[in-house]
Amino acid sequence: MTLKNAFDEFMFQKELAGLSPASLSDYRNYITIMLNHVGESMDLESVTYELVAGYIMVLLHRPLSKATISTYVRNARIFLRWVHAEYGLSFDPVKIKVPKPPKKNVHVLSSAEIQYLLDSAKCSVPWLTARNKAIIA
Hints:
Layout: H1 3-16, H2 21-38, H3 49-60, H4 66-86, H5 111-120, H6 126-136
Helix pairs in contact: 1-2, 2-4
């Protein structure tokens, strides 16, 4: 069985499982890139950890954010784990480590900034002021 055949079966199974069209589209978009890099006509027996690691190295050297790279690798790993469970691979996809995306820095407003926002919501009609403050809150 080729990678392309396995991918078609994977997508069919995900559709039967009731995944949303957006999820199916994401799987198709992210995993197709790996299939194109590795070779979709490759037999499953020929897929090695080294090939997948080479794909990850290519991603790491592209001008992509770490979060994007993590998404690509995570989707590839999901697919390869499914292939491993259904058909077997020469390696266990659990060995594939997903790069950690950077932590998001959330800006917390200071008390003075919050007060400034609430003060800017004032207008001549009291109920509009209350509505505006509710929206900001």
